[in-house]
Amino acid sequence: LQFVESGGGLVQPGGSLRLSCTASGFTLDTYAVGWFRQAPGREHEGVSCISTSDGSTHYADSVKGRFTISRDNAKDTVYLQMNSLKPEDTAVYYCNTNPPKIDAWGQGTQVTVSS
Asked: Which of 30, 46, 78, 87 is the 20 to 30 A CA-CA neighbour of 99?
C-alpha cells in the first residue's frame, strides 16, 4: 500500500485548502481512510476519518466545524476540505488507512498557515 497526498500550500489565517488523497497499487474504496498531521517535534495526530460502509465521518475536536472529509469512489480519492485555517493547523498532512498501516505512510503534503 502507498498513499499519495496533494493540495497543500501556504495560506493566510482564515483561508481554505482542499487536500486530496489517492492510492498507488490499490483502490481506496475498500478501506476506511483517515487524515493525520504531524507538526515539527510532535507525533502524528488523527484529524479526521471516513468509513467505507455508510460514509460516517469523525473529526478531532480541534478541527470540528472547520474541516470536512469526503470520498469520491468514482475517482478513488478522499478529500479534506479545510476552512477557517489557523496557524496551529500548520503541519505535514498525511492520509492512511484507519487505523494507519505503518508501511503505508506517503510523503505527505505541507500545509502552512501564516500571514
From this structure: 87
Between CA 2 and CA 17 the distance in angstroms is: 23
CA distance readout (Å), 73 to 17, 76, 90, 94: 21, 4, 28, 19
How far is the CA of 50 from the CAs of 29, 56, 83, in angstroms?
11, 6, 18
Which are the contacts of 57, defined by CB distance < 8 A and separation ≥ 6?
Answer: 48, 49, 50, 51, 68, 69
What pairing do the DSSP bridges indicate for beta strands 9-11 and 109-113?
parallel
97 DSSP β-pair partners = 33
Burial 69-102 (b: 16+ CB within 10 A, else e): bebeeeeebbbbebeebeeebbbbbbbbbbebee
